[in-house]
């Protein structure tokens, strides 16, 4: 029911108006009610050292494609601090492209505490995973596996043993997982992006032609995975 999503072919269409800054201070006043919502981190731009400008272009391009087909569902790009370079870049580019502000938001906060500390209801969260789909390794992967408990590790194993760059795997979270109980997260989507860090597996040695293609595929797989849950 939740296959590994491989390079989906997707139509493209742009959204309408500007993306809203959705920081903690506004969270209680802006309601996302019960619309299906995917919160996702910027894939590959921290430990995997992918260029911010190029990543921001790809994020906005893929959001423009998908907001048009998501019905009332919403996408939220999350990062830990207000100083996040990728959040500022994506906000600016989303505004230039007139992305629909009802369908795409940015949010400053911990992706594992969106409901409890951010007042934001997101039923699906994405993880910037490693190819082994293992806990640890730092970054958002360590945070999500820690917050979700061993339930996520076993549920992940049932779906896939590994992931190749540019792909995503949808994992339904057991109702006993702390992330389900406290945050209302029902699915985690693991995504593997392109790696530009020579200390990590499958380093692309600055080959941005390949890297951009893989990052586009990664977001397409992620958003297609989310769409498969919403449908
Ligand atoms: N909440 C929200 N955003 C976060 C959080 C959090 N708790 N933690 C980090 N970020 P990274 P990558 C942001 O390095 O570059 C792992 O070790 C962070 O600021 O987690 O794809 C895996 O095992 C950045 O914007 O992922 C892989 O081996 C974004 O999440 C490798 O690192 C992604 O940063 C993946 O590297």
Strand order of the largest sheet: 1-7-8-6-3-4-5-2
Query: Kindly state the mean pLDDT as a whole number?
Result: 88
Order of helices and strands: EEHEHEHEEHHEHEH
Low-confidence stretches: 5-31
How many DSSP helices? 7
What's the number of extended β-strand segments? 8
Radius of gyration: 16 Å
- Strand-residue proportion: 15-25%
Largest sheet: 8 strands, mixed
Task: List the ligand species.
Answer: ligand AR6
What would you say this structure looks like, in words?
This protein has 231 residues and is α/β, with parallel strands linked by helices. The protein has one domain (4-230). 35% of the residues lie in helices and 16% in strands. It has seven helices and eight strands, in the order E-E-H-E-H-E-H-E-E-H-H-E-H-E-H. It has helices at 24-27, 52-67, 85-96, 139-148, 150-159, 178-183, 208-230; strands at residues 4-5, 20-22, 37-41, 74-79, 104-108, 124-128, 168-172, 187-191. Strands 1-7-8-6-3-4-5-2 form an eight-stranded mixed sheet, with helices on both faces. Helix 2 packs across helix 3 (85-96) and helix 2 packs parallel to helix 7. The radius of gyration is 16 Å and the shape is globular. It binds ligand AR6. Residues 41-48, 78-80, 86, 110-112, 128, 130, 137-141, 143, 193, 200 line the site of ligand AR6.
